[in-house]
Amino acid sequence: MNKKNGTKAIPFIIAVFIALNGIFAQDVTTVSAVDGTIGDNLNLEAVASLFGESKDLEDFEKRLNDPKTQISNLDLNEDSQVDYLRVVETSEKNTHVIAIQAVVGKDMYQDVATIEVEKDNKGTVSVQVVGDVYMYGPNYIIEPVYVYRPVFFSLFWRPYYRPYRSVYYWGFYPRHFHYWHPFHVNIYRKNVHVHINTHYTYKHTSVRRSTTAVAIHRKTRRNDYGKKYPHKSYKIRTAGVTKANGTQKRAVQVKSANGNTYSAAGVNKPNGTKKRVAGIHQADGDNYKMAGINKPDGTKKRVVAVNKA
Predict the structure, then answer these.
(1) What's 172's DSSP letter?
(2) Strand pairing report for 125-131 and 141-145
(3) In degrees to the nearest 10, what's the CA dihedral of 216, 218, 224, 226?
(4) For residues 122 and 214, is the Cβ–Cβ distance under 8 A?
(5) Is a pLDDT exceeding 70 seen at residue 218?
(6) 172 or 159: whose pLDDT is higher?
(7) What is the rounded distance in angstroms from the CA atom of residue 278 to the CA atom of residue 288?
(8) What is the pTM of this model?
(9) Helix 44-53 to helix 57-64 angle, to the nearest 10 degrees?
(10) Residue 153, CB half-sphere, CA atoms under 13 Å: how many?
(11) Which among 16, 69, 72 has a CA at the least distance from the CA of 41?
(12) Which of 16, 157, 159, 277 is deepest in the core (most CB within 10 A)?
């Protein structure tokens, strides 16, 4: 590049970065297509199946973390080891909320799903497995119908029943447990289906039956990981991109400088539609993204990687 061209390029680069400051608040490095969501790594039908076959909640926790069956494929903290899942129960009269929480760090827990068991005045027991909104989005609910009522249900309403609370935490796990490496999500999906009891029925619904369970969960939910990484929520990861014809295009995924990822839907074009973002490099190697810039004739030109001086 000669001095004349270099001089012309400086205002162009400055203009680009001024525009970018209004578009993105976080540094990013690469963009790649989203190939799955966190919730894909724990099949809640498999969880419901295990729940119905367990002797009690302690046995249920053991089955959730069995290295032989590998029901879970969750690695929220991205340490290449599947997270331990602890079980914590809270009860209020005839309602029991069993929270499944991933142990992701010291004093850090993330609700993955809850199992809500409630007995009505007629003695009818309802069960719902509810995916946590951070991981599965709103109203991801499964109602399992068991051939026989699980044997430990009768324990829930005995006098002096003590709710189960896992004694395990970060760095302290049962002897039978050892870590395993997570599989690619497509392999996990194929493997986990053999552990779903096909004699049971799994009804998907969007309505939670128990208002008491909702209130209990609101007070006891752990969202430590979600608070630390809000950009990894289901809502952000699956945000749609509106194309010019009004249809939706799946969001793209953006990696931040620390290797974590979140999804960016794109930026607004003058006609109100969205366009996939391109990359612009900063001096520290990070990227900002934008759709393009205005050329002198009023049309848009896609931005390529531009290095700050």
Answers:
(1) B
(2) antiparallel
(3) 140
(4) no
(5) yes
(6) 172
(7) 8
(8) 0.69
(9) 140
(10) 20
(11) 72
(12) 277
Closest CA to 262 of 285, 241, 239: 239
Q: Which pair of tokens denotes residue 109?
A: 């827990």
269 is written with which tokens?
Answer: 């074009």
**Nearest residue to 200 via CA among 266, 143, 274, 262:** 143
Contact 243, 273 (CB under 8 A): yes
Q: Residue 140 half-sphere exposure, CB side, CA atoms within 13 Å?
A: 19
Cα distance between residue 109 and residue 123, in whole Å? 34
Residue with tokens 């602890």: 86
Pair of tokens at residue 170: 């970060």
Burial class (CB in 10 A: 0-12, 13-18, 19+), 259: exposed
Residues 6+ apart with CB under 8 A from 47: 64, 71, 100, 113, 115, 129
Strands (E), 185-306: 201-205, 241-242, 248-249, 252-255, 261-264, 267-268, 274-275, 278-281, 287-290, 293-294, 300-301
Burial of 156 (0-12, 13-18, 19+ CB in 10 A): buried
Structure tokens belonging to residue 303: 């931005």
Classify 225 as helix, strand or coil: helix
Q: For residue 107, give every residue at least 6 positions away whose Cβ sits within 8 Å of its Cβ, in sequence order, or none.
A: 169, 170, 224
What confidence tens digit (pLDDT) does each residue in 278-295 have? Answer: 443 444 444 444 444 455
CB 260 within 8 A of CB 232: yes
And the tokens for 220? 């006891």
pLDDT digits (tens, 9 = 90+) for 2-53: 544 445 444 444 444 444 444 333 332 222 223 356 779 999 999 999 999 9
Amino acid letter, 69: T
The CA-atom distances, in angstroms, between 224 and each of 16, 76, 142 are 37, 11, 24
